Amino acid sequence: MKAVVFTGWKHILNLAAIIRTADGLGFDEVIVLGRKKVKGKFCKKALKDWLEYKPKLIQLDTTNEIKKYLVKKNYSIVSMELDDEAIPLENFEWSKDVAILVGHENSGVPKDLRDISTKVMLNMKGEVKCMNVACDASIAMYDYHLKMEVT
Best label site of 41, 57, 103, 116, fewest CB within 10 Å? Predict the structure, then answer.
């Protein structure tokens, strides 16, 4: 089983991009912290269309619910974080059953979820400190795909 967990979503298009990438790379679940109302005709139609993809969308209200769910499913928990102790993605070895946690660009993954995860980071080459959350999630999912599924 493979999941991506989105903990700090503010824009529906980031969630949509994560769902599409998860579908394209064969991820089983997209887990979202919190519930937001989707506003606007475009966003409502787009979300309806995106929910027809393969990954099961699971919305949980608290980080504690997410922790319990991930532990129950026996996921290896990996958070994409800017952290001095984080393992560079290019050196990271994935486990088979994984949940990749991503958070908002400013706040990151909530501390209580970071504390139960292995921290992994993208080495940035330019001036920016971090990627957009959807880009970060997509790169991590693709790295998993390359290392674990492509022979």
Answer: 41
